[in-house]
Design a protein that fits this description.
Elements lengths: L1 E3 L1 H17 L4 H22 L1 H4 L1 E4 L3 E5 L4 E9 L5 E7 L5 E3 L4 E5 L3 E11 L3 E13 L5 E16 L3 H6 L1 H4 L17 E7 L11 H7 L3 E6 L5 E7 L7 E4 L4 E4 L19 E2 H18 L3 E7 L3 E8 L2 H11 L11 H11 L4 E6 L5 H17 L1 E7 L16 H26 L3 E5 L4 H15 L3
Parallel strand pairs: 3-10, 13-17, 13-19, 19-20, 20-21
Antiparallel strand pairs: 1-10, 2-4, 4-8, 5-7, 5-9, 6-8, 9-10, 11-12, 14-15, 14-16, 17-18
Helix pairs in contact: 1-2, 7-8, 7-12, 9-10
Length: about 450
């Protein structure tokens, strides 16, 4: 694409206006001037396109960024011309990436390769693509501007930001680490460690009778806490995880993107944005994986919706955690309802060893709730199941949290009380099956999950 510059418009006015006035008295001279001016313009326009064909722009094929952190994307420019070029560069940014500079202006030296970094701010987790770059250079006489679109395939992966959540849970994750307050371990452990001499007070059940008969003196078995237990995050990415949670002044309110704020709910904090429950699930689940690996356990992942979509076998190490993060970074909400019968069959067939299953889901759908209770009864017989969901502050006992100012507030409080009764009934039903269910505020979800995990470790429930 070629476009005129201001210089061309100015020179055209200086040439055409006098020639238009004097052509009556000096026709041949004015015609010669006009012809020469047109030839000059055409030559300048024809010479403007050739440098762009020798200009190369390249972006890295893969860029990894962190959500809500200021980042940079490197761009390499190779100028194979014999003249320097004044470049004006722009990128077609996807919705999940916000450019901190609308365009970049630089000078590319002849027969050289230069590079620069484009500042940006990732605003949405997931996979994004940069495929188009727009370059603009002036013509040699600066009468024209030449623009060209170049293909620059680049995949940008934006991962969730765990730094803020880790700062909130730092004190919880330090439980049991040297230099902090040590918690008393309940029980003696289940994993055999070694044989030792009998000490008065040891139970007869701990005596190793074969070693006692062989050595001629009492020998006792010593146990240690098992450190290679399996912890699985079972994450629901069905339509239920697409509900938005908006931070409110002092509390949290839940709203659906298709519905406005309901009556009686507190106003949102200024500068905050609503986020789906899936975002809180992913951040909290990854922090739970960090805590499990720090305490020597194996961490795995099960993502389910209409079917079991992603599965990562429990493992340890940095590479395994990166594999779990890779499986979650581009996870999106599915519009379908969860198939809990298939999930129960999958867990029963794949997870043979007793493990800690931490569910992150929502129970707003009565049909899904009934299916969950029916299918978790068999799962809870083999595994330790902890169910966690986000808390809606409007679901509470009658008139326990908000003041009544109008008739609409009365109906809203009654609706919240009915929902609170359903939640309590569900908790009692799951408790009879040996399943623990808790409701958490979104901002404290990660800390509560880690506290649950450490409590299981302390009490040796596995």
């Amino acid at each position: 694409m070629i476009a005129p510059e201001r210089r061309l418009i100015g020179w055209s006015a200086l040439v055409l206006l006098p020639c238009g006035v004097l052509i009556r008295w000096f026709p041949y001279a004015c015609a010669a001037v006009l012809l020469g001016f047109v030839v000059l313009i055409v030559i300048d326009a024809s010479r403007a396109r050739s440098p762009l064909s020798k200009l190369g722009i390249q972006l890295p094929p893969l860029v990894r960024l962190t959500k809500s952190r200021r980042s940079e994307i490197g761009i390499e420019i190779s100028n194979n011309c014999d003249t320097s070029l004044n470049l004006r560069i722009g990128l077609a940014w996807p919705p999940g990436l916000r450019a901190l500079a609308p365009e970049i202006r630089l000078q590319a030296l002849p027969q050289s390769t230069s590079s620069f970094s484009w500042p940006c701010l990732p605003t949405r987790r997931g996979k994004h693509r940069l495929s188009e770059c727009f370059v603009q250079i002036p013509s040699p006489l600066r009468l024209w501007t030449v623009r060209e679109e170049k293909s620059v395939p680049c995949e940008v992966r934006v991962y969730p930001d765990l730094a803020a959540e880790r700062r909130k849970t730092a004190s919880i994750m330090l439980r049991g680490v040297a230099g902090t307050h040590l918690l008393r371990q309940i029980g003696q452990g289940r994993e055999f460690e070694k044989l030792r001499e009998y000490v008065p007070g040891d139970s007869y059940s701990e005596i190793h009778w074969k070693a006692t008969a062989k050595r001629g003196r009492p020998i006792t078995k010593a146990f240690q806490v098992e450190k290679t237990q399996e912890v699985y995050l079972v994450l629901d990415n069905s339509r239920l995880s697409g509900r938005f949670f908006q931070p409110a002044a002092g509390r949290w309110e839940r709203r659906h993107p298709a519905c406005g704020p309901s009556a009686g709910r507190m106003p949102a904090l200024p500068g905050t944005e609503a986020a789906p429950a899936l975002e809180y699930f992913i951040s909290a689940g990854l922090l739970l994986g960090i805590a499990a690996q720090r305490y020597g356990d194996l961490f795995g992942l099960v993502v389910y919706g209409e079917r079991v979509e992603r599965f990562v076998r429990a493992g340890g190490g940095r590479q395994h955690f990166n594999a779990c993060r890779q499986a979650l970074y581009d996870l999106k909400t599915s519009p379908a309802s969860p198939d809990l019968q298939e999930l129960g069959s999958f867990i029963g067939g794949r997870l043979r060893r007793r493990a800690l299953l931490v569910f992150l889901t929502d129970f707003d759908d009565p049909v899904t709730t009934e299916s969950f209770v029916r299918n978790m009864e068999l799962v809870a017989r083999r595994h330790l199941v902890l169910v966690n969901t986000l808390k809606d502050y409007a679901v509470a006992r009658l008139f326990s949290q908000q003041a009544v100012e109008s008739a609409e507030d009365v109906y809203a409080a009654l609706a919240g009380h009915l929902e609170w009764q359903k939640v309590n009934e569900l908790q009692r039903t799951l408790s009879r099956m040996g399943v623990s269910m808790e409701l958490h505020q979104p901002e404290w979800l990660a800390g509560r999950l880690i506290s649950q995990y450490l409590n299981v470790k302390q009490r040796q429930l596995l």
